[in-house]
Amino acid sequence: AQTVTQSQPEMSVQEAETVTLSCTYDTSENNYYLFWYKQPPSRQMILVIRQEAYKQQNATENRFSVNFQKAAKSFSLKISDSQLGDTAMYFCAFMKQSSGTYKYIFGTGTRLKVLA
Amino acid sequence: DVKVTQSSRYLVKRTGEKVFLECVQDMDHENMFWYRQDPGLGLRLIYFSYDVKMKEKGDIPEGYSVSREKKERFSLILESASTNQTSMYLCASSYLGTWGADTQYFGPGTRLTVL
């Protein structure tokens, strides 16, 4: 069975600094997607970044980038130039399709606080 | 922009009541999902649906049922609410992509308290 582990329940970072959130997963699949979602306080969860497992190049979205290590089953999120609006719960997620059904597995989340 | 709405942000019910949580999406997505979110446990999938009148059990379907009579609407039903169903409930939707389901779009959540 697939699992997703986020080992850092809480983190903090100073505004304008860089922070890395870790995520590891366990699967025997070769084709799958990985996601980072952000849930700001009392607001809707939104996608931050996604990575297709067959792509070797790490995904980037402005200040957000990932370090995808397929062999190590690691998918960390780096936030550069942290802003107060980055304060949120961050969830790592794994998804695969199999025989018409979809399997999404979420980690337990990392609560990030950006300090002024 | 994709919009996923949920019928209530906060809901308080009594043990044994029948509870309906509704979710509506406006982007013609094939897939819709219900999750519950609990501290320290992340998001856990209750049910999902990939088409009208179709449903699949997720990881924790016990005590819940779902209904999808129209493509845009997906309802979660608690037949007889219990205190251990106190939680945040999140609805999500996604396209049915050529490879598989794409990014999920989430609603604002319903915080349900069962007394």
Largest sheet of chain A: 6 strands, mixed
Beta-strand percentage of chain B?
over 45%
Shape of chain A: globular
Rg of chain B, Å, rounded: 13 Å
SS summary, helix count of chain B: 0
Tell me the helix content of chain A.
under 10%
- Write the H/E string of chain A, N to C: EEEEEEEEEEEE
How many strand elements of chain B? 11
- From the helix content, strand content and strand pairing of chain A, which structural class follows? mainly beta
Total DSSP helices of chain A: 0
Task: Tell me what portion of residues of chain A adopts beta-strand conformation.
Answer: over 45%
Textual characterization of the structure:
- The complex is a heterodimer of chains A (116) and B (115).
- By secondary structure, chain A is an all-beta fold.
- Helices cover 0% and strands 56% of the residues of chain A.
- Chain A is built from no helices and 12 strands.
- Chain A has strands at residues 3-5, 10-14, 19-21, 24-26, 33-39, 46-52, 60-61, 64-69, 74-79, 88-98, 101-106, 110-115.
- In chain A, strands 2, 5, 6, 10, 11 and 12 form a 6-stranded mixed β-sheet that branches. In chain A, strands 3-9-8-7 form a 4-stranded antiparallel β-sheet, with no helix packed on it. In chain A, strands 1-4 form a two-stranded antiparallel ribbon.
- The radius of gyration of chain A is 14 Å and the shape is globular.
- The termini of chain A are far apart.
- Chain B has 115 residues and is mostly beta strands.
- Helix content of chain B is 0%, strand content 51%.
- In chain B, strands 2, 4, 5, 6, 9, 10 and 11 form a 7-stranded mixed β-sheet that branches. Chain B has a 4-stranded antiparallel β-sheet with strand order 1-3-8-7, with no helix packed on it.
- In chain B, strand 5 (42-49) and strand 6 (56-57) form a beta hairpin.
- Chain B is globular, with a radius of gyration of 13 Å.
- The mean pLDDT of chain B is 92.
